[in-house]
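Tutorial handout. Part one gives the primary structure; part two gives the three-dimensional structure as tokens.
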Amino acid sequence: MNSKFSSDSLDRMRLCGVIAVLVIDDAKHAVPVARALLAGGIDIMELTLRTPAAIDSLTEIRQHVPEMMAGIGTILTIDQLHSVKETNAHFGVAPGLNPKIVAEADRIGLPFAPGIVTPSDVEAAIELGCQQLKFFPAEPSGGLKYLKSLAAPYAHLGLQYVPLGGVTTENLATYLAEPMVLAVGGSWLAPRDLIAAEDWLEITKRATEATTIARQTRGTV
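Part two.
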């Protein structure tokens, strides 16, 4: 089974270990928050389509912070998928698995990871050729203990998971120590209130802490 992501992208995700997941309400904050994350060592981010500012924010980041690997999450419709592709996003993500979205992402050449939380989800993703899967919501669904049980029957296929939802600095190392975990989604790095307050120093501090944990856990210090 071939990955929908390039080997370079996968290597970068594993090396970084943490993908910043953001909700941005005003596109003017896009570039400063991207630079704040970079200053802390986080060079991959997912902008969620929960606000109208997401697409404009991605456009700003791709233009002014090209060293940031930036994708879009919460893709729920075909129209959104095409908008994301037009902004030259590095990847797309969804909270669940919609076969039509996965198929269209494949057709237009957008690396895409659907969300899974059950064995049926995993098997549907396998049928669609997906090898990187978003495990969401991670902690409310049973956390790493549940993920290990879920993933066991499919371990021989080399699937990789990105847990998101309830991952924090307290359990980050535990997740990243698992070889099947490609990276985690970190919504705590730059929450909505810190972005609105333009507290870039705190965001850099949180990114630095997460980067340190990731590097120590994976031996990339």
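Part three, for discussion. The longest helix spans residues 200-218. Strands lie at 18-22, 44-48, 69-73, 92-93, 112-113, 115-116, 132-135, 160-163, 184-186.
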